[in-house]
Amino acid sequence: MSQPQFSELPGARERQLKRRSQNPLFTEECQVVTPSQLEGARQQDLDEVQQFSTALLALLNDVSAFSGKEETDKILQTKERADRLYEQCVGLAGEHERERQGLLKLNEAIMTAIRAAAGEDPLALSELEKEQQARAIHLSLLEYPLIADILRSDAVIEEDQLPPTILSADDEAIEKALGLFSPEQRQLLIEEARQIKSRLEQSGKLDKHLEKKFSLLFALAS
Does the structure show a pLDDT above 90 at 221? Predict the structure, then answer.
C-alpha cells in the first residue's frame, strides 16, 4: 500500500494520522489511513484554523477597546484568552508565525499592565516572576508538536495510541514528553511499551532503530 500524501504543515489531526500511517509501533488497524480519514482530518484542522482566526480577531478587538483603566480581573481574563489561543496556534495547520509572534507580544503587554497594577507589592511581584518562569518553560515545551498535541484538551491522541505515538518521536521529544507524566503514569507507559515490543519481536519487526527507542523510553521513564 502506498503512503498517503500528507500536508507539509499538517494540523493536529492529520499529524496524528501521519504518525500512525504504516508505522509498526501501532496496531495493524491504526497503520491504515484511508482517503476519507485523511480528508476528514484535514477538514477538521481547517475548521480549527477558522475558529482560531475568529477568536483571535475578537480578542484583538476587545484589547483595542481598552481604556487603560481596566480592572485586574479583566486583564487576567484577557491573558488567559491569549494563552489559550497561543497554545492552539502552535499546533494549527499551515504557517502561523505572524499570529504566534503577535500573541507573544500581546502577552508581554498584558504582563506589563499586571506588573504596574502590582505596584511595589513584593509578594505580588514574586508570584508574577514565578508565573513567568513557569510560562517560559511551558512555551518551550509547546515548540515540540508531540507535546502540543498531548496537551490538547480534545485528545487528538487517543489513550491507547499514546505509547506508540511517544515512541515514534525523536529522542529529545520523547524525553520532554515523559516529563509531563507522573511516576504512576510513566509506569503504565512502560508496561504498554513492553507489550508493543513483545508484539514486534513476535512478528519479526523489531529492528535496531526501534530497539533504541524502547531502551530510551524504559531508561527515562523508570
Answer: yes
The alpha helices in 65-95, defined as continuous H runs, are 72-89
The CA distance from 183 to 188, in Å, is: 9
Pick from 35, 23, 5: nearest CA to 166 = 23
Specify whether the CB–CB gap between 42 and 14 falls below 8 A: yes
b/e map 21-30, b = 16+ CB within 10 Å: bebbbbeeeb
Helix (H, G, I), strand (E, B) or coil at 197: helix
Q: What is the mean pLDDT of residues 77-92?
A: 94
**Burial call 97-109: b when 16+ CB within 10 Å, e when fewer:** eebbebbeebbee
Q: What percent of the chain shows pLDDT beyond 90?
A: 78
Residue recorded with cell 492552539: 88
Report pLDDT digits (tens) over 144-203: 999 999 999 888 999 999 999 999 999 999 999 999 999 999 999 999 999 999 999 999
Nearest alpha-carbon partner for 14 in 164, 169, 149: 149
Q: Which three cell numbers stand for residue 143?
A: 515548540
Write down the domain spans for the chain: 12-33+149-221, 42-143
Residue 135, Cα to own-chain centre: how many angstroms?
14
Q: Tell me how far apart the alpha carbons of residues 16 and 31 are, in angstroms, rounded to a whole number.
A: 11
Whether pLDDT at 29 is above 80: yes
